[in-house]
Write a structure and sequence with these properties.
By secondary structure, the chain is an alpha+beta fold. Helices cover 47% and strands 17% of the residues.
């Protein structure tokens, strides 16, 4: 048996699930920013908006534990946000204020369909995290009832 007690497993499970919720919330916020700027042809730097891409990293929960199972458990966290360097599509619109000498406007490199699929994936992952937290709570409640 682990030297940290059985309740540590419940709290560890909640920590892992909570980190997933936080990561997916961050991912959804970044996707929402991409969608909101899908037509922004000029930002503060004078250039078209560049799609943002979240990068996640695993982090050990408790590397000092004597329990070999707990030493392998990891949470997830947003480590950085990268700017996608893929060039945007050139659209012919000579009347646009950001058109070049040839009449082309560089649009942001945001594909709305891809972003919507990413949003649906993040939303489903978030729902799965909420479901796992509810299951953890039910198991903890059942364990407390057994002890009565």
């Amino acid at each position: 048996m682990s030297s940290i007690g059985p309740s540590a497993g419940i709290f560890t499970a909640l920590e892992v699930a909570g980190s997933g919720l936080s990561a997916e919330r961050s991912r959804m916020n970044i996707i929402a920013t991409n969608l909101a700027n899908a037509r922004t042809t000029r930002g503060a730097d004078g250039l078209p908006y560049r799609r943002l891409d979240p990068v996640f990293q695993a982090r050990p929960v408790d590397s000092s534990s004597f329990d070999p199972v707990l030493r392998t458990i990891e949470t997830v966290e947003l480590s950085r946000i990268d700017e996608d360097q893929t060039p945007g599509q050139l659209v012919y619109d000579p009347q646009h204020p950001d058109a070049n000498e040839q009449g082309y406007v560089e649009m942001p490199n945001v594909n709305v369909v891809t972003e919507m699929v990413n949003m649906m994936t993040a939303s489903r992952a978030y729902e799965a995290g909420v479901t796992s937290i509810e299951s953890i709570k039910q198991m903890a409640s059942a364990a407390l009832r057994i002890g009565r």
